[in-house]
Amino acid sequence: MNGVIAVYQKELALYFRSPIAYFVVSVFLIGTGYFFTHNVLLTNVATMDSTFQNMGIMLTIVCPVISMRLYAGEHSSRTMELLLTLPLKNWQTVLGKFLGAATILLLMTAGTFIDLIPMYLFAEPETTTILSGYLGFVLLGLAYLAIGQFFSVLTKNQIIAALLTVSVLLAFWFIGHLQTFQSSYFWWRLFEYLSFANHFSNFIKGLVRSESVLFYGLVCASFLTMNAGYLGWRR
Amino acid sequence: MISLQSVSKRYGSKVVVRDVSFEVAEGEVVGFLGPNGAGKTTTLRMISGYITPTFGRIEVAGYDVVQDNISVAKRIGYLPELPPLYDTLSVVGYLRFVAKAKGVTRSEMNLELDRVATACRLGSVFRHEVFKLSKGYRQRLGLAQALIGKPDVLLLDEPTSGLDPGQIQETREVIRSFGKEHTVLLSTHILSEVTRICQRVAIINEGRLLTIDTPAGLQRAAQEANCIVLKVSGQTDNLRTELMAIEGVRQVQVEGPDEHQIFSVECDVEEREGLDAAIARRVSSEWSLHHFERQQPTLENVFLRYVRDTPGESNS
Prior knowledge:
Chain A is mostly helical. Chain A is built from 12 helices and no strands. In chain A, α3 crosses α11 (196-204) and α8 (127-154) runs parallel beside α12 (210-234). The longest helix of chain B is centred in the middle third of the chain and has 14 residues, at 106-119. The model of chain B has no long low-confidence stretch (mean pLDDT 85). The A-B interface holds A 2-3, 5-7, 9-10, 13-14, 17-18, 77-89, 235 and B 45, 48-52, 70, 73-74, 76, 78, 80, 82, 84-89, 93, 97-98, 100-103, 145.
């Protein structure tokens, strides 16, 4: 576990010593604040539904920016050789990096709690629905980061890593729309299951379904495993 | 301590290292000498476990680099050609990361960081950020990370490249002191470096290991291949034939003439008493002899001879 902690601490230090983390978190919080003001304060509806929906879409841009440097940055700073010759197992490197990026996601999420203050001061929102929405948001973000980390290991260029990730995330966000064109039940169910948006909308409604939790867990596990597998294969 | 058995590395159809075998004993400092693109870096990368050989087997301290790469990594300190540094971290933060990854415990941490910082003379920049360091300090920091955890084996890829003469001198001193406690394999294309630091020299070119011997042994080998250089003027049509007729002369190469109509003649000769005088007598009798020199077998000459004589091969 020491190896995971070493990589995790290094990743956090790198995030906080570069302007990217501050920029991304700031942009996300300003965006969330804008949507909260628009969806809650201007409409006088004390729910986070629409704001969570907007936050989910913003993640498709924010997460790739957080994850793009995880491995591509190691190539550009020529530290990949060090990372892969230290006595660290591939899964330790992968997990340490993932936890570092996940911490930025959690800090970003915590930053949005400030929006809840006026809601609790002036209305009586449903706490369980809000908690469920936040759980869905964090799970969605973790899945996005796992995908972004995988694409970061495939290329030496951070911009290409980010663009590939955004493309895949948008595809999985909107894949549910293909349901409309399906007459076959199998395909209909498959597109529904693969849609990040569908699972997320359950959490927003206050439904914590094991199927959705499992889906995000599977996405994380699959992409992190592929990441570790790729590191072993590329030697 | 390090053993390579018939190691080759192929990228697609390009063979970068072919059939290299050698061993480095415990506590030995071995120089890996070759021109740019000879395969030195690829070989070091394979030993470090960064890439795997296409064919052959590499062992470090008895562990197979491919099968047991974690056990090997624990015993290796590796400095790649460009020091692998995180620019935004501080020097101490960077060393702390490497130390943690190498399994240095919390109680030993400060002691270990002090040890490597002292060995590599990093004390004055210990709290600085890496991007603020000069090239010399970056190289020393790279060395310091390789030293963390007291590894049995140090792999140093061109550790003095790009440094100024003062920094080169300092870095060599540091490496020489490492050699007392570690097995060191260092690659370089600077000949004087290997004679000053290394106990043995491996010469590699076009991916092939040409020879491995002590610097003195290589010079002895060169002595066996004696070379006499002459400067002559006159009609040289039959000069080569006349010299080849002398017993003990193996090969004659005539070049020139230069702007003063002087020809340069290189004779590859056997070790034989009176041969120098016989050649000088024969040349003086028919041509004007301006210069006669028995070439000194320097390591530079040995290296050039080996590299020049490497047979060119296709990459497939």
